[in-house]
Amino acid sequence: MTLIHRLSNKSIRFKLIVGFLLLVIPLQLLLIFDNYYGMKVVREQVANSNRHLVALYMDQIDRNLEEIDKYLRTMVAFENDLIKLDISAKVNSDEYFLAKINLFNKLERDIHTYKEMDYLFIYSSVNKELITNQPSDATIEQLKKIQSGIIQMLREREGFQKKDFEKWFPYQINEDYYIVKIQKIGDVYIGAWVKASKLMIPFDLLDIGPEGKSLLVTENLIPMIDNASITDKNDYLQVSTHSKQGNFSLLFLIPYSVILEHLPFLQHLWYLVILGALMILPIFYIFLRHIILLPINRIVEVMRRVRDGNLDQRVKQYPVSFEFELMNDVFNSMVSEIKALKITVYEEQLFIQKAELKYLQLQINPHFFLNALNTIYNLAQFQNYQLIQDMSEYLINYMRFMFQNNLEFVKLEDEIAHTRNYLQIQAMRFQEGFTYQINGDESLSQALIPPLIIQTFVENTIKHAITMEEPIQLTVDMELCEDQEPYLCITIRDTGKGFSEEALVKWQSEVDLAHENNGYIGIWNARRRLRLLYQSRAKLIISNHPDGGAMVVVRLPFVLENEI
């Protein structure tokens, strides 16, 4: 049955697959064929065209180099002053220096005939002296650098034979490459020197795109232009030809993106394809909108409302595909079940919370009651009946407060009166060994707080801080503070020895101390009650005061009776 629904014309899968195939497959086949065929034809045509262009430019470079080579050979054959440089200058210094002057003047004149060259040079290995022209646009530092490079190059080739100087060859100085040709007569070298980048100036006029490259490369295909880095040669059409005059080649790297720019037929075909796609797109969008988008939008809209807490929302029934009918039914059923489950869980949480609060209050009450009876017993031994009557009255008021307290909150004034009864009993018990002070504004008396929250920490002071060695002062301060919301700040501080370091570490890490026999069960109960009533809105800060003694700060949201 499921397979029938999937293959039926009502199935969203069937509609999507058929619509997608009818639209995409013909376009993909057309684009693949057109792209493959067009790229193949254009690549062959561009390669052939640029192969002729590269050969033409290389022939031009070779002709220029050949002219310079003829000039060098002519000088070797007919320049008599070169012979004088092959003899030590000490033999006939006048003829040697006159020959140097004549050759220098000749180089200065002839260099203007061969504008492609940077330097013409003559080197006497016998006298270790270099003669070269001096370009007007070259600085002294540049000239010294080139002359030093020429001398270094010649010294590296002093042992070469005449046949080793038949062709031009590249030579590198630092990051720059130069094309060099040398003729040798005896121990005298005459040559020409040109920077590789200068030979590439005419190629700047070529339209091969901003990323296209025209390079002079060595026999090892190393570019002789310092800014000719190539990231991926597979992105370029490579056309090269080798020089007939030297050991280097001319390489064209033409980006395929530039090649495609010169394909008007292919571009027009692409425009037709794009135009056809734009015409089909609205029709396909309307189809998808009716079949898929509208049903999905209905479900998404209801899901957003449910996420915001409105569990009464349901997806309305519309004529849709089989899959969306099933999704709508399942979603509506899930929301109904979630709503019922949430109500049940909420009621159970309320019940558990109320039971736990009552249990915690009952856990506190016997603790104080036993201490109070022990105090009356001690007073009866001294037969001070007036003090026993006063203490009994305080105890009666305390127990009345406890017996009638079955609420989650009490007024601050009632909690203070109850705490004052307790403190008065302790003051009568310890006399000069214990004093207390309660400070607070009358405007705070109607604020609602959990019952016994102050009495718990006051009792902790009586239990742990009072000794017979020195008097103890207890202070309770209450004030209204402002943060993101107004809150009631209650500070209970004593002048005793304070909390131990071990206890502070446990309180700050909020370790569960309810089942430890350390006398701090009341504090743990108070913290638990605050979490049940306020979650994260209330804070309990336990520390030692810098001047000594324990200090407890209780921060509660400021709530009045009419705000509940």
TrEMBL record:
It is a multi-pass membrane protein. InterPro entries: Bact_2-comp_sensor_kinase, HAMP_dom, HATPase_C_sf, HATPase_dom, Sig_transdc_His_kin_internal. The keyword Transmembrane helix applies. Residues 290-343 form the HAMP domain. The chain crosses the membrane at residues 12-33, 269-288. It is found in: Cell membrane. Keywords: Cell membrane, Kinase, Membrane, Phosphoprotein, Transferase, Transmembrane, Transmembrane helix. CDD domains: HAMP. The keyword Nucleus does not apply. This is HAMP domain-containing protein.
